[in-house]
Design a protein that fits this description.
With about 400 residues, this protein is mostly helical. The protein has three domains: about 90 residues, no CATH class; about 210 residues, no CATH class; about 50 residues, no CATH class. It is built from 21 helices and no strands. It is globular, with a radius of gyration of 24 Å. The termini are far apart. About 0% of the residues have low confidence. This is Orphan protein.
Length: about 400
């Protein structure tokens, strides 16, 4: 273990990496006796590999039973520093990486980052990029804006809507989005659905977005705005979250933004990423790379740290595997939907050519069941069982 802990001192670390190493070493020193009890056979020669190895020790191989209670926060801090370091180091490779290397990294990590599920979100929202938010049903608006809800039908929303930057903590934003979706539509409408997006377009959006908060006690923040922009134009805008902003800014080589730095978001994030070799020279060679190229501004989100638990921490996965709970009546607890949402979801499902005509005639009955909280697929399957 001692050899592992001191090995970065023999690596050619840059100034940022050296500072990160010193911060990690400070936390490791506080629990050095516990760490020394762990046998280490793998000694990576690169800093990224070193971070992964030490993180595995801190998460899975240290004996937690021998830790004092006051040491637990130190272990958590060490884990957090290592996770942030891994995100920074992986994102930093984007500064010089060519397109084939970026695509290869994503392909090799597709299982751990739940890429198929993430791409399902993008494919679902693709037809809605130019749809006004006020014309969307509430569930679609949540999917577009990045906030999970317990009543999302897993047979329809086969993904966690909070991939690519969750906005669940932006309560004021979501309240305004519920009350005045048209105000945000006016802001998004100035961003072209295709073609070049200029600074002038973004500035017009910024004026509209800030105006949506006029007369409200809520303060406009940057993160939810970037989520809306990224879903409108995933080839141009990279969404941000407060928890990952430090690693992103470090990797881009810019001063850390705060959640009100609307002007710097364009110059320091959008413009910096657009100038990177992989972004400017993206040359898809197959269907997989074409999917990635169409959302290339979202690709930095796939370089943050992920592990074997990332996929199972998805809200979609949790809904699928949620234990059944009983309400006071003894039946399965369900969440009712609005009639408009139920009708839209059912009509989409019935548009499938494989649905028999005699099942389509049961539309109103299906809508009624879905409105009560039953899933669309479950209801249609039940109807097919009853009526053939």
């Amino acid at each position: 273990m001692k050899k592992l802990l001191i090995s970065p001192s023999n690596m050619a670390l840059g100034e940022q990496e050296s500072q990160i190493y010193q911060n990690i070493l400070k936390q490791a020193t506080e629990i050095s006796l516990n760490l020394m009890a762990v046998k280490v056979e793998n000694h990576p020669e690169d800093f990224l590999g070193w971070c992964y190895e030490l993180l595995d020790v801190a998460k899975n191989r240290i004996n937690f039973d021998l830790l004092d209670d006051h040491q637990l926060p130190t272990v958590k801090k060490l884990q957090d520093l290592l996770i942030a370091a891994i995100s920074f180091l992986q994102l930093k490779t984007l500064r010089i990486a060519p397109w084939p290397m970026v695509a290869a990294f994503i392909a090799s990590h597709k299982e751990v980052i739940a890429l198929d599920e993430q791409l399902k979100l993008i494919e679902y929202l693709k037809p809605m990029r130019s749809t006004p938010l006020k014309d969307m049903i509430k569930e679609d608006r949540l999917a577009f804006s990045g906030k999970h809800a317990a009543n999302l039908d897993t047979s329809v929303y086969q993904f966690d809507v909070e991939w690519f930057a969750s906005t669940k903590s932006a309560k004021g934003f979501h309240q305004l989005l519920d009350d005045l979706p048209g105000a945000f539509d006016e802001a998004l409408a100035v961003i072209p659905a295709e073609g070049d997006v200029t600074l002038e377009h973004y500035q017009s959006f910024m004026v509209g977005y800030l105006s949506a908060f006029a007369g409200s006690e809520e303060k406009p923040t940057l993160a939810p705005a970037t989520r809306l922009l990224a879903m409108r134009r995933p080839d141009v805008f990279t969404p941000i979250t407060s928890s990952k902003l430090d690693a992103l800014c470090q990797a881009l080589g810019v001063a850390k933004l705060n959640n009100r730095d609307f002007e710097r978001y364009w110059t320091d994030v959008v413009s910096t990423i657009k100038a990177m070799p992989w972004y400017t020279m993206a040359a898809p060679v197959d269907e997989f790379e074409t999917q990635l190229a169409e959302i290339k501004a979202l690709l930095p989100c796939l370089f943050y740290y992920a592990d074997k638990d990332t996929a199972t921490n998805s809200n979609y996965f949790k809904l699928l595997h949620k234990p059944q709970r009983s309400g006071t009546s003894g039946g399965k607890k369900t969440v009712r939907r609005g009639k408009e949402s139920a009708e839209v979801l059912v009509d989409r499902a019935l548009a499938d050519e494989s649905i028999p005509e005699h099942i389509r005639t049961k539309r109103d009955s299906i809508v009624a069941e879905v409105e009560k909280g039953r899933s669309v697929d479950e209801t249609i399957s039940l109807m097919r069982t009853i009526f053939g």
